[in-house]
Design a protein that fits this description.
Keywords: ATP-binding, Membrane, Nucleotide-binding, Repeat, Transmembrane, Transmembrane helix, Transport. There is one protein chain. This protein is α/β, with parallel strands linked by helices and 1526 residues long. It folds into four domains: 25-192, no CATH class; 324-591 and 944-1261, ABC transporter type 1, transmembrane domain (ABC transporter transmembrane region fold, Up-down Bundle); 657-674 and 692-855 and 875-903, Rossmann fold; 1284-1363 and 1482-1526, 3-Layer(aba) Sandwich (Rossmann fold). Helices cover 58% and strands 9% of the residues. It has a six-stranded mixed sheet, with helices on both faces. It has a six-stranded mixed sheet with strand order 20-21-22-17-23-24. β6 and β7 (646-654) form a beta hairpin. The chain is elongated. Mean pLDDT is 77; it is low at 193-199, 274-316, 508-527, 604-624, 856-870, 879-914 and 924-928.
Length: 1526
Amino acid sequence: MADRTLLHSMRALINESLLLDNSYPQFTKCFQDTLLVWVPCGFLWICLPFYLYSASHQRDTAPLPLSLLNISKSFVSLLLSFLMVVDLINGISNEDGEKETTAEYLGMAIKFASFALSFVIIQIERVKGNITSGILFLFYLLSMLAGIVPFYTYIIQKVYDSDLNRFVLFYIYWGFLFLQVVLLSVAESRGRRGYHELGHGMQCPETNASFLSRITFWWCNSLIQTGFKKDLEEDDVWELHPRDCSDNVVPPFEESWNNEVKQQAKSLEHSISYNHRPHQSHNVQATLSEKSPLLGGAGKSYTHTPEVTFKGSKVRGENKASLFKVMVKTYGPDILKAWGCKFIYDLLQFVSPQLLSVLIEYVTMKQLGKEEYEWKGYVYAAGFFIVALLQSTFFHQNFHYGMTLGMRIKSAVITAVYKKALTMNNEARKSSTVGEIVNLMSVDCQRMQDLTGYLWMVWSSPMQIILATWLLWNQVGAAVFAGLGVMVLLIPLNAVISIIQRRLQVKLMKFKDTRIKLMNEVLNGMKVTLVTFITYVLTSETGYLDAQKAFVSLSLLNILRFPINILPMMISYLIQANVSIGRISKFIKYGDLDPDNVQHDDRGGELFIKYNDLDPDNVRHDDRGDKVVEVNSATFSWDENLQPALQNIDFEIKRGKLVAVVGQVGSGKSSLVSALLGEMDKLSGSVNVKGSIAYVPQQAWIQNATVQDNILFGKVMNQCKYDDVLEACALGPDLEILSAGDMTEIGEKGINLSGGQKQRVSLARAVYNNADIYLMDDPLSAVDSHVGKHIFQKVMGEKGLLKNKTRILVTHGIHWLPMVDMVVVLQDGKISEMGTYDELLSHDGAFAQFLKTYLTQDNDEEQEEDEEIEQIRSKILERVESVTSDTAATSGDEAKIRKRTPKKKPPLERTISTIDGRECKPDKAKQKQEKDVLIQAEKAEKGKVAWKVFMIYFKAIGLATSAIILFVYMIYQALGMASNIWLSEWTDDKDLKNISNADTSDYQNKNYMYLGVYAALGLSMGIIVMVWSLVCTLSQVRASASLHYDMLANMMKSPMSFFDTTPIGRIVNRFSRDVETLDSILPTAIRMWMNTSFAALSTVIVISYSTPIFLSVIVPIAIFYYLVQRYYVPTSRQLQRLESTTRSPIYNHFSETLMGASSIRAYNQQDRFIRESLDRVDKNLKYYFARISSNRWLGWRLELAGNLVVFAAAMFAVLSPDISGSLVGLSVSYALQITSALNMLVRQTADMETYVVSVERMKEYSETETEAEWVRSFKRPPHDWPQRGYVSFHDYKTRYREGLDLVLRGITCEIQGGEKVGIVGRTGAGKSSLTVALFRLIEAAGGEIIIDGQRIADMGLHDLRNKLTILPQDPVLFAGSLRMNMDPFDLYTDQQIWEALEHSHLKKFVSELPDGLSHECGEGGQNLSVGQRQLVCLARTLLRKTKILILDEATAAVDMETDDLIQNTIRREFKDCTILTIAHRLNTIMDYDKVMVLDQGLVSEYDSPNNLLKNKNSAFFSMAKDANLV
């Protein structure tokens, strides 16, 4: 009984005979009153909870103003509700017409409630500030589409005759539905007319787009149009969508990471406390922070990795926080949204084969003369179009959601890496070089972004395989497993290849990610349909393969091929992504600087200042807070696993004091400064520093910015204060030399400034910062004596700008010591002595011995101890008088300094600094000075990619090879067409259709003949495509290697001017991203282009062969495709270029930050640098977002046209009277592929033009100007050249690059073989330029240099440079062992190396290292002090020992004693060599044969030191007098 009731209900709902065996599709009244109402209304009510949840969690935005559009939508909703009431009343009162059913009344009530609900939602949308509603649009669209059935039914059934009221009411109702759909297709306006939102650029149009505009990407039109009209520039692209901006992306990720870290720390704490509970009662506490380890925060709140500590011991637990889990929690809902779209797309994929099946059946029945209603054919054809349109929409929404999510993941992870780089400790820094950390950004973060958009393959591919297999089973039965087996058997092979390759890539990170897709290409060619059809023919009862089975199976196998092929690639992608996640996770879990290393407890003395009165005399204070630096029994190490670098440090510094820190090389001076900054691990004791800090590192850290920006360092410009700082730091004359003064851009790492200039810019930055405490690590080492005197007087001294500040000065200049308040002497990491200058000289301690060693080393006479000390004191004081007096005469004022009672200094002098507060009128001329750009913006090519760029690539492949590749692929595609046409002939054979003859030999022979030819064609395709893949892959790899070699060879020969004006990050970008494009992306793009172009061509040929009338539509469609492509490609190409050029600054800034992390922390500038990084990432993603959005714009439109091709093919199949089922199958199965083929063709054409830009960029760097030849075969100097070391300059002139002034303006002098020549002069006089010219790092602009009779301009650069040795101003070491740094080419024995170390006074130090010569120096030699690095360079020089040696301020970073030892070594080991020494310490060259004084690029004096000193008017005499040498 129940079954009968159900059957009756089903027939009442759907009557098949009424629906299908009718002149029109007639649906029952029950169907119209139920399903056609319940589906759209049910959609609205089901979505309601999700909508309300989303609205409640939406960020607050301004409500939308009332507008005509909003009022119209509200009015239509209410009117539709009213119409439902009227319709209900009409139904109740209608006595003549047909009585209404319960279902109809229920339907009216549901519609009334739904329209009323839509009115409420419209109001909520307005209040919440939402300009469009997808739910309402889809609800009204579904309602309108559901109304189409009664729309035509009422007309055909002439309802107007029986119930005019209902007829009229329905069409009014349907008209308002249509109107509401139109209204909901338009977005609301956010602002009132005449008002515009404030912002820096154009707002992203997606934020103001309607739902319909968003799903069709109509909002991209303006950008595509602009790109078509002109070459896009940066300002033409709208700003990033707020959803994707770093400010909205980073906080949720950081919050999730923080929670994960705290959760793991609690688990670790519980585990450890549980494990230790039985033994003894420990005090267990987890060192947790509210901030994540990857968050630096502002100021000194450097959080560190959570650890578990016990009393008396420190146990560091492994941080097991999962980055993957955090990403799932943070981005799971977003990716599910994308996957939902992909799920619907996958289901829709399998509708088309079913439509093809019924269409073939329809045509076959017509051909057999059976009656078939034409509307069925039209419905089937329309079904193809509608299904394909829905597929396109869901597919592109999936990609849009997925790829924008990838952007957000990249932005969040890059920021996490950047913040970690600002907070990681020294142990972590040793584990990763700058290059490796930058690689995390450039490769691993990018890989995670790329994978996110394709992650759906993981579940989508298996689902498609299962569904396709099930449908194939329904078609051909068990034969499906034969074809499927071929595919599946190759999966492990592909997977193994991918895993092996990935393992090699993990081991050798220098290799870029590449993929060999040979097996996939072979699989595509090995027509699995062949195996399936052979099995079916041999196993079926009749052996007959009809058109329906053949072409439906073919279309299903086409669907199946993609997921089967993509799975092995996905395995490789997942492994790569897993490695990247692991590398990033490992990095952001590294330990951080412990905030407890240094306390910043400001409690203590209070400051009382009269309002608006900054006179120091009006400041009262108490003494409780007079100690601004307190260190108690502190022991520090650079790494918990290393021996302490500083032990038992005890000292305190009062406010306003000047404290000098002295000691020999490696004694721990720089370590002490780092310890006060919190840069070292504190193993015991306590450190407290009160107030803000300014830091001058020993090696100046200079940003790639203007001089002014480097000095201001984020502070507001105060012109008078700024001018005072420039004058005090002696930068005025230097700025006059620079082309644009202080607006001159400094190159990367300050490359276009001398060492002294960089140090003074670094000092000026600190002075302008106006901090409470100044930590200065040997700031005067790189400047001349007279400049040093000026700086000490004007900045650090008793009358300097910082006279009221607390100053800690690390120095090797002992002549400053009488003028400091306290001297701290370090020896072997301990404070050996500490006190005032007088106190330390009052007894024969380590300090006195140090001074005596230096000052009395030439004195052979023994004297009484007190007399010796008195002699040292008098000599030092005499020197003090000379270097601190305003004139060359000795005033004696400074000698009295030590005898005064120190004046009480008020606390926190930053508020009463002498460089603040005075009024002045800024020089407007200075303010208007234009910026001189050294680093030019990266060149972005414009316009269409020139054909010659393609030719460059084809020539790299080989023109003959390129022609062979093209010809072989044409044969492959021709065989593919032939096999499908043969399949059509096979299934249409009339003899084989007569299955009653299946047992006859003629029938079987004919069947086997068809099968044999089909098999031969399939096997031929497999062989040909394998050959094609091998030739293509190998030739493209060679092409990439060739272009890479050309670029590398050219870079190695580029002149210094190129590196001065080109950031390293930009060059690295060419060698990483662009080379990777040529390695893997471009070859794939070219193969895909060939595949899609020939596939599209073959599709057109086959459809035209099947239905010639198709040619009538192919022409307009082809024109449309061409126009869309031409319209789109310029935009895509230019966006790719803009994206490429904005990527380099991210890496440049990151590298720069890593190098200056300690300075950034010291100045408390982390937030500003993080903000800069976020802005650069956002800027790059802005162009990436525009590019992927334009791709979606193109894809949707091309697929729309492709869908029309499918519709046309189906329609022509319906309209053609004599067409067979096999030809319909052939035509439509090809047409189903053309949508993706033509879309991919345009996409691949655009991508190929986009990616070939990398060839263009690599070619640009392989054609830059180069140095002279390395070796000139016919102008090589003699093998033993130079024998004497004679050097002659004849009117030599040079400049650093074209367009700049001469730096040497006519040098003429002769240096005899074996002479020792000192070169002196003010900073910027041309000293370093002279040495650079000897190596021909800059070429002559006039004149010549001759060495032992050979013009250096005539010989090859290698022949020249191999015969010269330089000990540079900045020591250069590489990450690697000490031995490798000394002997990179492994030319010397260990004994020779130990001898060089002994002569360079490093043997004792190296022998005490645990690893000896194998000791790792760290990146840039960071594990050694600057002085030790210089000594290693000296040892390297001693090994090489050429006839000519150049010393470029080589001893500036070492103490006086070590300097003398080095000078003695040089005199002894290079006694027969010609030595050119650039010196700041004149005492080191007083015994030289000659002294050359340079001034503004000219030789002003050149004679022996004695002769020059006899002339009291000489510049050298003045310098010697300043240095107290005369």
